[in-house]
């Protein structure tokens, strides 16, 4: 990742300090998947969604007050767009804010729309101030299907989405099979969390995810 995104020493230290690897989706995958995805990036310059998706996203630089609205969050992200893109990845390019799409005469608005150059995908970012709710899946799936039909250019991959929530439930995300929909749900943190606490939290999360993967594998083999 360091070589791929041309990080300097300072940026590399910041990424390590924020437990970047532990926050990526790939850290919770089997060893074989990790090796394959990294080789794909190194040898073919292709990035998978496992390397792109993170949880949580550290947005402490937004300087939000105790109470804020979704519009405040959106405004803060755009005013600190350069630092937001650094958190998301250098191949991230901003396209639109509150992009309007019309379906059956009714208007809908995508909070933020980006493009990832290496993955060649449109990326929807939907902002939520509360915890993740099942109905958010249907809302974002509609956006993705519209983009796939009307906005995806020739040679591009299917659009994907990130729903940024104040909190989430991993069991709910698993039951809704969000991975199969190209939707990733992640928590965002607007305040600094001590490095030691952050890293231990992610280590525990990775171990839990790998145990669950092994259990699913054993069930399939039976």
Structural write-up:
The protein is α/β, with parallel strands linked by helices and 222 residues long. Helices cover 46% and strands 20% of the residues. The chain is built from ten helices and six strands, in the order αααααβααβββαβαβα. A six-stranded mixed sheet has the order 1-6-5-4-3-2, with helices on both faces. Strand 2 (92-103) and strand 3 form a beta hairpin. The mean pLDDT is 79.
Features:
222 residues; alpha/beta; six-stranded mixed beta sheet; 6 strands
Number of helical elements: 10
Query: Uncertain runs with pLDDT below 50, 5 residues or more?
Result: none
**Biggest β-sheet description:** 6 strands, mixed
Number of β-strand runs: 6
Tell me the series of helices and strands, N- to C-terminal: HHHHHEHHEEEHEHEH
| End-to-end C-alpha gap | 38 Å
Structural class: alpha/beta
Mean pLDDT: 79
Helix amount, in percent? 40-55%
- Proportion of beta-strand residues: 15-25%
Gyration radius (Cα, Å) is 18 Å
Tell the overall outline.
Answer: globular
Sequence-ordered SSE layout with sheet pairings:
Layout: H1 2-5, H2 9-17, H3 20-23, H4 31-44, H5 49-52, E1 57-58, H6 70-79, H7 81-88, E2 92-103, E3 106-116, E4 121-127, H8 135-150, E5 160-165, H9 170-175, E6 183-189, H10 195-221
Parallel strand pairs: 1-6, 4-5, 5-6
Antiparallel strand pairs: 2-3, 3-4
Briefly say what this structure is.
This protein is of the alpha/beta class. It has helices at residues 2-5, 9-17, 20-23, 31-44, 49-52, 70-79, 81-88, 135-150, 170-175, 195-221; strands at residues 57-58, 92-103, 106-116, 121-127, 160-165, 183-189.
